[in-house]
Amino acid sequence: MMHRFSLVFSKLFRSWVPDAFVFALSLTILCVIVVWAVTEASFLEIITAWYTGFWDLLEFGMQMVLILVTGYAIALSGPFQKLINRLAQHVHTPIRVYGTVMLVGAILSFVSWSWVVVTAIFARQLAERVNGVDYPYLVACVYLTFHGWVGGFSSTIPLLLNTPDNFLIQQGILQETIPTSSTLLTPLNAAFVVFILLAPPILMVLFRPRRNPVTLDSLLLNKGGENKEEKSVEEEALKTRNTPPLPSDRFNHSVWLLFPVVGMGFVFLFHHFYQNGFSLDLSIMIFSFLIVGMALHQTPMRYVLAMKKASSNVSGIIFQYPFYAGIMGIMLYTGLGDKVGEGLAELATIATYPAYSFFAGAIVNFAIPSAGGEFAVLAPGIVVAIKELSTGMPDTKQTEMIARGAMAIAYGESLTNLLQPFFLLTITPVMFHGVNIQIRDVLGFLFIPFLIYLVIELLMVSYLPMQL
């Protein structure tokens, strides 16, 4: 019964959801119309804000590409492939495939949102080994694990609040940073982590398609099966050697040339974590992945080939992200983001501000699928509103309320990623490679989990304590 509802929504989304780029263009037009209607900005001012925003997230967009390809390169290494093979040997049925992917993916996403790529590689290999796996549904399982990142080590909003001289401090809205002990290391976030680890595997097993699965074999563009026999990085590297070897080959395949640089990287990482504790941001995550990837591949040529493979299908992210940055610019530079905050201040109470923050994060995420960019738009208005609501309270209580509001925005932002097709582009280089499948074939399977998550997470941010 449950899986029938899932199939109904899948057919509905397949009929109506366009390509991710069409989605971005539609949101751009909608955002322009909304700003034109509710602000005093002229059309030229709106267009100028759009153009200005286009380039505001270039650094973040490049970081996003790098964290994906460096994480993917790690997964292409020989040692990592052996680990995946060992895990795969214990999974023999579709039910186990769905459950295992959900559990492994949730754990990986808590480490870094970019490791959803690793989950995708693991799931792809399981689909190649186990008969009867519904492939579009498996892609949905992989993407659903991505939601857990917001409660983990790479969660953007808590890390930003803990960053010295962040934009809220620069604007005088906050006087000091809010440590992760007040956001990530709270009973609220602990409950979220437990929920993500336990509930989704059970949920996706219950909703699984039971009849006529759409298997990977039936979707392969090359029916001859060459997709399954793709050469490893080590095998491709061997093919680049000349016979007899030339001096250039000795450099390309030298362990001793790569490892001094790897050693320098590990020294810096040790120094960084010794000086700063377990402090993570996107830059240190990318650098860590880069150094670990080089260490696992062992030679320059292997790493070059791994990065080439990992970079083969990130075009969607590269050219679409500026359009979402443009939408952010429209909201940021025309005052629409401030109006959202002002609306919260007028409507919210001490009892309801978490829910308002949650829905603000969820709705704005459709236009700005970037936690950092969205928080830049929403945070000034919402934090000021929370400070007004908490006037006269002790500083510790006010900080607790701001932290709850920030986590509510984070959970809401991550939740609607399940219906926002942009971040599905993070796994398409792996899951869609050589396969006749589109994003619209996947989104329908995420709608019912979205509704269940919505209710449970709204209750969490509204009622669970921030401190014991």
Tell me about the largest β-sheet.
Answer: none
Provide the residue-averaged pLDDT: 85
Indicate how many domains the architecture comprises. Answer: 2
- Tertiary shape: globular
H/E element order: HHHHHHHHHHHHHHHHHHHHHHHHH
Question: Rg to the nearest angstrom?
Answer: 23 Å
**What's the multimeric state?**
single chain
Report the sheet-strand fraction: under 5%
The percentage helix is 55-70%
User: How many extended strands?
Assistant: 0
Tell me the distance between the termini.
Answer: 41 Å
Q: What structural category arises from helix and sheet content?
A: mainly alpha
Number of helices: 25
- Uncertain segments are none
What this model shows, in words?
The protein has 468 residues and is an all-alpha fold. The radius of gyration is 23 Å and the shape is globular. The chain folds into two domains: 2-230 and 312-463, no CATH class; 233-310. Helices cover 69% and strands 0% of the residues. The chain contains 25 helices and no strands. The model has no long low-confidence stretch (mean pLDDT 85). Helix 19 (336-347) runs parallel beside helix 21 (371-389).
Give keywords.
mainly alpha, 25 helices, 69% helix
Q: TL;DR of this structure?
A:
The chain is an all-alpha fold and 468 residues long.
What layout of secondary structure does this protein have?
Blueprint: H1 2-16, H2 20-38, H3 43-54, H4 58-75, H5 78-88, H6 94-111, H7 116-129, H8 135-145, H9 156-161, H10 167-170, H11 187-206, H12 216-219, H13 233-239, H14 247-252, H15 255-276, H16 282-297, H17 300-310, H18 315-333, H19 336-347, H20 353-364, H21 371-389, H22 395-415, H23 428-431, H24 440-443, H25 447-463
Helix pairs in contact: 2-18, 3-18, 4-16, 4-17, 4-18, 6-7, 6-8, 6-11, 7-8, 11-25, 13-17, 15-16, 18-21, 19-21, 20-21, 20-22, 21-22, 22-25
